[in-house]
């Protein structure tokens, strides 16, 4: 096992550590590590608490977008550990992203146990699986989860759409294991998911589920200077009118097919709206092809895959940039008035923090569930109407939805809701905010557990 920093010093004989030590395990992928790192910062800021942030060697290289610079800025009371790489070469080449992630997690369990043993002092799920036999996308009635709006079976997370896929069984077993937890720390806040949080509180009070602590939102803040501030897209935004630009980005992993990229380009052009589009290499096989880093094998420019003449025809109206843009800075810019997003949770919370309405365009994982919620909370949804993954959103649908978000009545309503959510997000971490109180409750439980452990060792 490799570590990115020195381990905490061992107490002298007869002495016991006076602080609680919290181990935070991030799922593979930069989108999971970033908010966990922010959580680690806030954990140790409580005082009398140290933390270890654990990541996976699989998918943790610079080529996978791993935020090594961010990790280097963590406070001294946060140590980091990397679980050794596990083999994945026995998986099929077309294995789903969820299969790859969950296989890494499962195969890393022995290493995680060793880590916990070395760092520790001595001393529901599956309901639909049991009650249904058809594929979830074929369920005749909406799925009603506690505190959530009714969902189509096709809106549930991707692995649940194919019972024969290994990812399905991974997820069902994982859901059952959740019931063994002492509680859940969730990167959300009351105004974002009030009904779900209230439902969880009721059910945990009855002993159905462990308690859930809504402690968010955790999202990155704008940087000051450096590469991000100098990015050309920000200078371009400086020249645009307030609220006039539609930002289009499908996150670190979202990938469009060649056909869908062409339809999106045509829809953008037909809408006449100003736009900033972060263009990634297309893939006709995998909508999450970019999730684990570049790995696309291309040596050319992703902009070369845009329709011929698109960049020239839209010059002055829009700007297409390759691969990456400083998203937090973009969303916070006065010129940005809407966000076409895959609905990844980091992107969602960054948009909420900036008060920018969203046009939800889910691609994989839990994003369709997020899109259903966001269509009510702070935006509009643009979802393929079919049940299959290969359904293409046409240029006419794209243009109509983008126009509605930027200049239509529904867009204006979404913009107002987005402003309200931005204020609620800020209030959640105010001195008496709901998220701050929930976070302090969790920290209090950790401190009590640490104190009890010290007393127990002293009595033995």
UniProtKB/TrEMBL annotation:
Assigned keywords, A-Z: Glycosyltransferase, Transferase
Family label: Belongs to the UDP-glycosyltransferase family.
Main EC class the enzyme belongs to: transferase
Domain of life: Eukaryota
Pfam families membership: UDPGT (PF00201)
InterPro entries: UDP_glucos_trans, UDP_glycos_trans_CS
PANTHER family: GLYCOSYLTRANSFERASE, UDP-GLYCOSYLTRANSFERASE 72E1
SUPFAM superfamilies: UDP-Glycosyltransferase/glycogen phosphorylase
Protein name from the UniProt record: Glycosyltransferase
E.C. number(s) listed in UniProt: 2.4.1.-
Keyword S-adenosyl-L-methionine found: no
GO molecular function: glycosyltransferase activity
């Amino acid at each position: 096992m490799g570590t990115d920093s020195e381990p905490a010093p061992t107490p002298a004989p007869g002495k016991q550590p006076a602080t609680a030590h919290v181990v935070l395990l991030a799922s593979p992928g930069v989108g999971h590590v970033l908010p966990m790192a922010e959580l680690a910062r806030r954990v140790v800021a409580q005082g009398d608490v140290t933390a270890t942030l654990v990541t996976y060697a699989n998918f943790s290289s610079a080529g996978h977008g791993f935020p090594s610079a961010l990790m280097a800025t963590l406070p001294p009371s946060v140590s980091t550990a990397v679980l050794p790489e596990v083999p994945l070469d026995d998986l099929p080449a077309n294995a789903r992203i969820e299969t790859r992630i969950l296989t890494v997690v499962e195969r890393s369990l022995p290493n995680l146990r060793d880590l916990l043993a070395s760092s520790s002092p001595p001393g529901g799920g599956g309901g639909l699986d049991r009650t249904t036999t058809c594929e979830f996308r074929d369920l005749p009635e909406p799925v009603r989860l506690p505190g959530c709006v009714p969902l189509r079976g096709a809106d549930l997370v991707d692995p649940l759409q194919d019972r024969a896929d290994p990812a399905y069984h991974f997820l069902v077993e994982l859901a059952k294991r959740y019931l063994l937890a002492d509680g859940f720390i969730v990167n959300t806040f009351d105004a974002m998911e009030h009904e779900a949080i209230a439902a969880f509180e009721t059910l945990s009070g009855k002993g159905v589920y462990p308690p859930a602590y809504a402690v968010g939102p955790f999202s990155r803040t704008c940087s000051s200077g450096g590469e991000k501030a100098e990015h050309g897209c920000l200078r371009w935004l400086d020249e645009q009118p307030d609220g006039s630009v539609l930002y289009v980005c499908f996150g670190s992993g979202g990938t469009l097919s060649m056909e869908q990229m062409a339809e999106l380009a045509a829809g953008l052009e037909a809408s006449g709206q100003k736009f900033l589009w972060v263009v990634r290499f297309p893939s006709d096989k995998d909508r999450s092809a970019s999730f684990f880093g570049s790995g696309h094998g291309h040596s050319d420019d992703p902009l070369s895959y845009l329709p011929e003449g698109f960049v020239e025809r839209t010059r002055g109206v829009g700007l297409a940039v390759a691969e990456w843009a400083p998203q937090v800075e973009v969303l916070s810019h006065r010129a940005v008035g809407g966000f076409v997003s895959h609905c990844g949770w980091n992107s969602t919370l960054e948009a909420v923090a900036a008060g920018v309405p969203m046009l939800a365009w889910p691609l994989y994982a839990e994003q369709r569930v997020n899109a259903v919620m966001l269509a009510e909370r702070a935006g509009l949804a643009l979802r393929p109407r079919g049940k299959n993954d290969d359904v293409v959103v046409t240029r006419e649908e794209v243009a109509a939805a983008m126009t509605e978000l930027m200049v239509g009545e529904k867009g204006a309503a979404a913009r107002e809701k987005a402003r309200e959510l931005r204020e609620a997000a800020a209030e959640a971490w105010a001195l008496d905010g709901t998220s701050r109180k929930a976070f302090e409750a969790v920290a209090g439980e950790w401190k009590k557990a640490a104190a009890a452990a010290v007393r127990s060792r002293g009595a033995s």
